[in-house]
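Protocol step 4 of 5: obtain the predicted structure for the target chain.
Materials: sequence only (see below). No template structures provided, no constraints applied. The aim of this step is simply to have a reference model before the mutagenesis design in step 5. Sequence pasted as it appears in the construct record:
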Amino acid sequence: MAHSSTPKEKAHWEDEESDALLDYLITQRDKMAGTNFKEITFNEAAKKLVGLKKSGPVKTGAHCKTRWTGMKSTYNAIEKYRSRSGCHWDNDHGAGIHGGSAEAMWKEFIAIKSNASMKRFKNSGWRFLNKMQQLLPSGS
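Step 4 output (structure tokens):
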């Protein structure tokens, strides 16, 4: 049985597994407490992922909760960037950094430790953004 204490072995997440996790959480959105779910929801989510595993350990509720927390962090970083005056974002090209002034603003933004996770979105979007917006439509 999947349980949600602390994951003992680090999980490797395939995009298909992350999509399935988000799809399940979307169906459970009415059970959200603020921007989070209860342990039982993550345990049930883990059961939905069993057939999708390609590598690493079988996902547990704790793995699902850790993945959700990381995805919320990424979502919040994107939302923070999108809300900055003069900053561009689209989900195909991410920040779409082209040209000297955009590059300078970008470097200043990602130099802040809490924004470092945005580096990978300089010119590419995030495939999970639309699903995260369904779960956290006004940010978190």
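Step 4 remarks: The longest helix spans residues 61-82. The mean pLDDT is 90.
Proceed to step 5.
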